[in-house]
């Protein structure tokens, strides 16, 4: 049953990709050959419990927590799996950073919420939202940044005497890409993984041309 | 700035013995409770002053794993596992060690351990 279902849905999908045009096919085949794919390095999310928290109490009763209000207003908690850092604020908001995927970030946020609940708080609402995704990529050819900053003047800020990378502010999707002459890229500001992939698909031909 | 007098050394053998003696005195009504408090405060003050100067013996330890840590109210707490403790004379391994460390406001930190 399952197998027949797969064989029924899979080929048309592939076909529709092919039908989309020769250019698409070309891109697809080149991606199979040597176009790298961006790797997600960090996912930052927030979760709001909707109740005020006593951080002192949380820091004294929980484990793996640092709380130094004279230095930083939030309690810093770390968990081992997924290896992330959580910032717990007295407003009841928790920022989770350091996850390597959207899914693991979600799991980590849930864990932080559960830990805080176990320390004696009843969460009123749990609103999870991804704030930022950072990805890196190495296109493995050197890039002439001067050329890009000249041809894409409106989107670029490039001052080699201040910083060797070129900041490319893409509008659709709204991300910032830092491009280095070595061929390494940082893509940041995305809210989901698709933004990263679309942004890379947009920027890759531009880099190729220069 | 005045160095704070931590009460953490009350949990040492010396501190516990002193506390017990004072408690005995109170129960026999030889001294009032207020005096016992004063003596313990004086003990805190003295041991905080003396330990950094007089105690010379060192203990090295090396742990396999940091199980948990905490930093709150300027106190670090570590729970480490499989600790190899070693001083000049002898050594041994304990399964778990809790380390409580306060800011000594000098180059030497003040440490206390329970196994």
TrEMBL record, chain A:
Main location per the UniProt record: nucleus
What's an example GO cellular component term for this entry?
nucleus
List UniProt keywords, sorted A-Z. Answer: DNA-binding, Nucleus, Transcription, Transcription regulation
Spell out the SUPFAM superfamilies in the cross-references: TATA-box binding protein-like
GO biological process terms held by the UniProt record: DNA-templated transcription initiation
Q: Which family does it belong to?
A: Belongs to the TBP family.
Output this protein's name: TATA-box-binding protein
From TrEMBL, chain B:
Protein's UniProt keywords contain Nucleus: yes
Q: Which SUPFAM superfamilies match?
A: Transcription factor IIA (TFIIA), alpha-helical domain (SSF47396), Transcription factor IIA (TFIIA), beta-barrel domain (SSF50784)
Major place of residence: nucleus
Please give a single GO biological process term from the UniProt record.
transcription initiation at RNA polymerase II promoter
* InterPro entries membership: TFIIA_a-hlx (IPR009083), TFIIA_b-brl (IPR009088), TFIIA_gsu (IPR003194), TFIIA_gsu_C (IPR015871), TFIIA_gsu_N (IPR015872)
Q: Transcription initiation factor IIA gamma subunit N-terminal domain location, by residue?
A: 5-51
- Taxonomy, superkingdom: Eukaryota
Kindly list the places in or outside the cell where this protein is found, as annotated in its UniProt entry.
Answer: Nucleus
The membrane-spanning stretches of this chain are: none
KW RNA-binding (keyword) present: no
Q: Which UniProt keywords apply?
A: Nucleus, Transcription, Transcription regulation
GO CC terms, sorted: transcription factor TFIIA complex
List the Gene3D superfamilies hit by this protein, alphabetically: Transcription factor IIA (TFIIA), beta-barrel domain, Transcription factor IIA gamma subunit, alpha-helical domain
Matching entries from Pfam families are given as: TFIIA_gamma_C, TFIIA_gamma_N
What is this protein's record name? Answer: Transcription initiation factor IIA subunit 2
Organism ancestry = Eukaryota, Metazoa, Ecdysozoa, Nematoda, Chromadorea
């Amino acid at each position: 049953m399952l197998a027949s279902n797969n064989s029924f849905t899979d080929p048309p999908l592939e076909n529709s990709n092919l039908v989309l045009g020769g250019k698409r096919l070309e891109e697809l085949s080149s991606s199979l050959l040597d176009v790298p794919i961006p790797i997600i390095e960090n996912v930052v999310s927030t979760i709001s419990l909707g109740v005020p928290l006593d951080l002192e109490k949380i820091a004294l009763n929980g484990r793996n927590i640092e709380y130094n209000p004279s230095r930083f207003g939030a309690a810093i908690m770390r968990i081992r799996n997924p290896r992330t850092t959580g910032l717990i604020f007295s407003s009841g908001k928790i920022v989770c950073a350091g996850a390597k995927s959207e899914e693991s970030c979600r799991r980590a946020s849930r864990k932080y919420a559960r830990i805080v609940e176990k320390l004696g708080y009843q969460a009123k609402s749990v609103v999870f939202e991804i704030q930022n995704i950072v990805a890196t990529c190495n296109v493995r050819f050197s890039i002439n940044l001067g050329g890009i900053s000249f041809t894409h003047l409106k989107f670029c800020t490039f001052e080699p005497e201040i910083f060797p990378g070129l900041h490319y502010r893409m509008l659709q999707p709204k991300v910032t890409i830092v491009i280095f002459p070595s061929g390494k890229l940082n893509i940041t500001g995305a809210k989901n993984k698709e933004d990263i992939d679309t942004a890379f698909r947009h920027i890759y031909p531009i880099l190729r041309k220069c | 700035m005045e160095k704070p007098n931590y009460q953490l050394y009350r949990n040492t053998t010396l501190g516990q013995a002193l506390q017990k003696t004072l408690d005995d005195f109170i129960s026999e009504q030889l001294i009032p409770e207020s005096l016992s408090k004063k003596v313990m405060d004086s003990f805190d003050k003295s041991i905080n002053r003396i330990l950094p100067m007089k105690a010379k013996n060192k203990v090295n330890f090396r742990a396999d794993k940091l199980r948990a840590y905490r930093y709150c109210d300027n106190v670090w707490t570590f729970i480490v596992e499989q600790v190899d403790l070693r001083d000049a004379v002898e050594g041994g391994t304990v399964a778990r060690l809790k380390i409580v460390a306060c800011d000594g406001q000098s180059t030497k930190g003040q440490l206390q351990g329970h196994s």
